[in-house]
Structure formats: C-alpha cells, structure tokens
Amino acid sequence: MTSFDTTSGRESFIIEQIIFENILFILNWGIGFILLMSFQFKGIPVVSFLYLILLLTVQVLLKKHNCSSCYYYGKWCHLGWGKISRILFEQNSGNLNIGKKLSISYILQLPLITLFAIIAGLIYGYTFWSVGLLIIFILVNILQVVLRKPVCKTCKMRFTCAGSAAKT
Question: What residue numbers bound the domain in which 129 lies?
Fold first, then answer.
C-alpha cells in the first residue's frame, strides 16, 4: 500500500477544472489523430487508427497501474480519473513501475506527432489546416504543461507521484 501525506493538499477538485482538463486532453488527442491522417493505406488512415488504439490502451492501463493506487482512487482528482479507475479496477491492483513507464507516452506524444506532422507536410504538402492544427496542437500541449504544475502543487500525491510536476 502506498503511503500518503494526508495532512496537506486538496481533498478533491472542482468539476469545472476536471471538465476543462479533460477537454484539453480530448482536443489534444483528436488533433493528434487528425494530424496523422495523411498516412494512409488504400484510403484508410492506418497511422491514425494505430495511434487511437495505442492511446486507448495506454489510458486504460494508466488507470489500472497509476490511478488504482492513488490517494484519489474513487475520488475527484484533477482529471476525475480516480472515479474512472474505481469503476474499472480494484484498489491497488496495478503496478506503479509499469504505470511510471506508461506515463512516458505523455512526454513522447508532442515531439512524435509534431515530427510525423512535419514529415506528412513534406511528403504530401502543407495546407493551411494542417499547419493551423499543428500550431494548435503545440499550444494545447504547452497549456497543459503550464496548468499541470500549479495543480500538482495542491495534490496530496505531489511528493510520491511519479508524474508530479510539483517536484520540478
């Protein structure tokens, strides 16, 4: 069982913040999917679908390996994922070492999708929409990083969470 410093930090987060942060994630993932659509095989955006499958798999596994052992399991964390984890998994059913490795996907997403979008532009040509979406994708990622640190500073898991930005 994980130990927590329950003497400080927020007990729960407000629903407006949870909704806003999840909208940013969905926007980010949706734009990533669209940016990868140039890579097609017989008219099917194979890379986009592979990204979607990988994304969904990682999201489910993160809920198991990180969220099921979190203080906010069954509670309203800043993303609401503690509630989702409780619906899907038993408490403490994950492996934090696996969760830490899976969390790297958040770090790799920005440079990889940006690189693929630039390659797609070089191969298939840039359009106003592809450049605009790439700029929005990068800005949403930057906004998520900027918003993350103050949220992490108020979290009860800020000192033990492998993904905490409060430690930086």
Answer: 15-153
What are the backbone dihedrals phi and psi of residue 136, each rounded to the nearest 5 degrees, phi first? -60, -40
Give the SS3 label for residue 79. coil
User: Would the CA dihedral through 16, 105, 154, 149 be positive or negative?
Assistant: negative
| Angle at which helices 128-153 and 15-35 cross, to 10° | 150
Q: What is the pLDDT of residue 18?
A: 93
Q: How confident is the model at residue 2 (pLDDT cuts 50, 70, 90)?
A: very low
Which token pair is 20?
A: 């806003």
Q: Are 84 and 63 in contact (CB under 8 A)?
A: yes
The answer to whether residue 74 sits within a structural domain is yes
pLDDT tier at 168, thresholds 50, 70, 90? low
pLDDT of residue 119: 93
